[in-house]
Amino acid sequence: MRKKMISLIVTIGLVTTLSTPIFADPLSDKLNNQKSQLEEQKSAYKKAQSVVDNIEISIEKMDADIEKIFADVHKTEVKIGETQQEIEKTKKSIQVAEANIKEEEDLFNKRMRSMYMNGVDSYLEVLLDSEGVEDLISRVENIKKIVEYDNKIIGELTVKKSKIEDQKVALDAEKDKLVVLKTDNESKIDKLKAKKAEQNVLVIEATKQEQLYSSKIGDAEAIVNSTMKQIQTIRNNAPKYTPSRGSSSLSSSSVVAYASNFLGTPYVWGAAGPQYFDCSGFMQYVYAHFGVDISRTTYTQINDGTYVARENLQAGDLIFFGSESDPHHVGMYVGNNSYIHAPRTGDVIKISALTRSDYLTARRVK
Q: Is 328 a catalytic residue?
């Protein structure tokens, strides 16, 4: 009996030993296949995300270029307006000068006519009609003063008229240059708009590719959702939004809470709120609410405040993207490796994960 039991145990052990590889290999293969598919999905998602990020960055750069051109166009229009005002002032000055000259000439002609009607043909005849030496000397002095006065007035007015006319010619020439510059700038804007239209087609396609994988792997989306929950908590504890300017106390939580009130606001070039914003206009508007004055453009805001290393970022810090020679985008760090920003044309103010490759630097303004 004992021998039978031992034999049975040995037999079961052999069967188990022999059967284990039979079941282990298919399970291992299935797990490896799943891992491989997951890695492929991750890789495909990253590629799609990279395509979208690169196109988004390109559009942001073009938005920045358009903003610069718009600024140049605005400056040109201001100059054209100022020049036009100067031209109008010059025209009026010329009219006044011409009227003064005509008035003096009329006065001079009246004196000559009066002399002729009284039988006097010239200043010489006036002198010859003098009665005695004293009368002659008196007439000479008077005639001399009249002649000097006439010559002085007419001479001054003529010089003034000449200078004003020269000024008008110069202003007209300057105006022509400014109009040419404005036309050139508008031509550049048209070209940039055409390029943006081409890129928007690519954005749509890249976004489609991203959506194919976003339901399976959405690390960036998960970060944003987590950040939104945190911001909602901050908003609940922060003072309610009011349209007042420069009246609220500044803290990391309050500035983030205030900025979040504008989520969904459309991006528009050169807009500084509150119905529309560009990236730098949004930052300026938010900080102005707390009485903090920062400059208007990305290219100048990058010099505002003090430098902050990426590992030391705090909510409320301005973060910049691009290169040292071309910082083309700015947003506000809100914590949890995320930032709020006005992204680009066709988009709205939103929170994004801080995963893009063109991070440049950060500044802290207080």
A: no
Single-letter residue type at 232:
Q
Q: Which amino acid is at 183?
A: T
Known catalytic membership, residue 74 = no
Q: 214 CB contacts (<8 Å, ≥6 apart)?
A: 45, 221
Q: Of the residues 74, 289, 328, 341, which is catalytic?
A: 341
Q: Which amino acid is at 81?
A: G
C-alpha closest to that of 246 among 302, 185, 280, 289: 289
Cα separation, 227 vs 233, in Å, equals 10
For 361, the 3-state DSSP assignment is: strand
**Is 289 designated active site?**
no
pLDDT at 249: 59
- Cα-to-chain-centroid distance, residue 296: 7
pTM (two decimals): 0.61
Architecture field, domain 53-210: Orthogonal Bundle (1.10)
Q: Which CATH architecture does the domain made up of 218-364 adopt?
A: Alpha-Beta Complex (3.90)
Q: What is the DSSP letter of 330?
A: E
CATH 1.10.287 domain residues, the chain: 53-210
**CA dist., res. 41 & res. 28, Å (int):** 20
Per-residue pLDDT at 216 exceeds 60: no
- Higher pLDDT among residues 142 and 84, named by residue: 84
Output the DSSP codes for 183-246. Answer: HHHHHHHHHHHHHHHHHHHHHHHHHHHHHHHHTT--HHHHHHHHHHHHHHHHHHHSPPP---SS
> Which residues, listed in sequence order, are joined to residue 331 by a DSSP beta bridge?
319
- The H or E element that residue 36 is part of is helix 2-117
Looking at 74, 279, 289, 328, which residue is catalytic? 279
**Sheet with 359-364, edge to edge strand ranges:** 306-307, 359-364, 318-322, 327-335, 338-341, 350-353
Adjacent-strand bridge partners of 352: 339
| Cβ-count burial 91-114 (b if 16+ within 10 Å, e if not) | eebbeebeebbeebeeebeeeeee
Q: Where in the chain is the domain with CATH 3.90.1720.10?
A: 218-364
Give tens-digit pLDDT for 71-124: 778 788 888 888 888 888 888 878 887 787 787 777 767 766 665 555 555 555
